[in-house]
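Hi W., the zinc ion complex you wanted:
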Amino acid sequence: MTLATEVLAVDRDRLWGRLMEMATVAATANGGSNRQALSDDDAAGRALFGGWAQAAGCTAETDEIGNLFVRRPGTDPEAAPILIGSHLDTQPTGGRFDGVYGVLGGLEVIERLNDLDLEIPNPIELAVWTNEEGSRFQYSMMGSAVWAGKLGLQQARDLTDVDGISVAAELDRLGWNGTRPARPSDHVAAFELHIEQGPILEAEQVQIGVVTGVQGLRWFTIELGGFPAHAGPTPMAGRKDPAMAMAAVVTEVYRAVAAKGEWARATFAQFNSTPVSPNTIPETLTCTLDIRHPDGGVLDEMEKEMRAIVAARCDDIGVTHRVTLQNDSAPVHFADEVVDAVERSAQAVGLSNRRMISGAGHDACYVAMHCPTAMIFVPCEAGLSHNEAENITAEQAANGAAVLLGAVRRIASV
Ligand SMILES: [Zn+2]
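Structure:
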């Protein structure tokens, strides 16, 4: 049998059954899951997954930050492994699919290869990254960040939750303190399968998102300084009112960002003023601004325009201003050959597809620093995620896993 040109389906019922079974581990009242990183519930989810992986003939290894790697051997001792990864931890009121789908979809690829006795030269390593969500221990994509060298191992171990419990203590308690070094080895390519977490695929009725990269983002604080005075006797003209300047800034920044196309984003939040009084013109008014775009050059333009708008609108009425960059995360561009493998696989399986950018961060962002990487998205209901109502269909789950299976075979040339 030559399988090279044959499209392989996956076992939809097995994949769906496992997604539903995983969702029973720390299920929430409204149909979601609460398996926060490094908790007993997270460990219970991993134990369930580990049993399935072992039954599928995989070996398992844990690295120094608790990332779990299960491995299907390849036939060529020289061939580098293909990496598939995502996460099993959830938000406190998380859904059933964010992360979980990528792990169990990866396991389904291994199961399907086993079903067919299809040996491939490359080992397949399926990674369960530690603490992707960053809710209990506040560093998103922590495990993959340590693996990639973006975050120091000790810094990660020192992170604490609200009760003062450290990552290090939990790694010890759970026995996740592995001996495998938390750093990249020689993977030939990497994939992450994920729900879209946005509304585009569903709205366009497209079955597969071929993800070419991840938005770059910059976080700013904006601090405006006015002159406090009585809200009643002080005429509107001539006030040094930071709220007036801010109103113009917000309006103009939204307008400028809208002109930057489909992927540009701007989000103002965390407005605070002092003094805490309803009848005094504020002395200070601060907020945060999150801007995003997949192109670093456009992000530069967005920042420059925003700074010019703040300066002009504040100078108009004599309000002082300070804009501080707090966080700068560069756009991620996935590897052409891995993106192509996903796209050609989707076409071969006969699924409608489009290239797109991820608006959210994923472990794949850090993996891509060291290894040619791409992501596969499937639509989710109403674009909803980080919510107990997060939903996909069994069909959609099977579609994404079939595309992943085809893409893995393309990389392995089998
Ligand atoms: Zn996720």
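The chain has two domains: 12-214+331-412, 216-329.

W.
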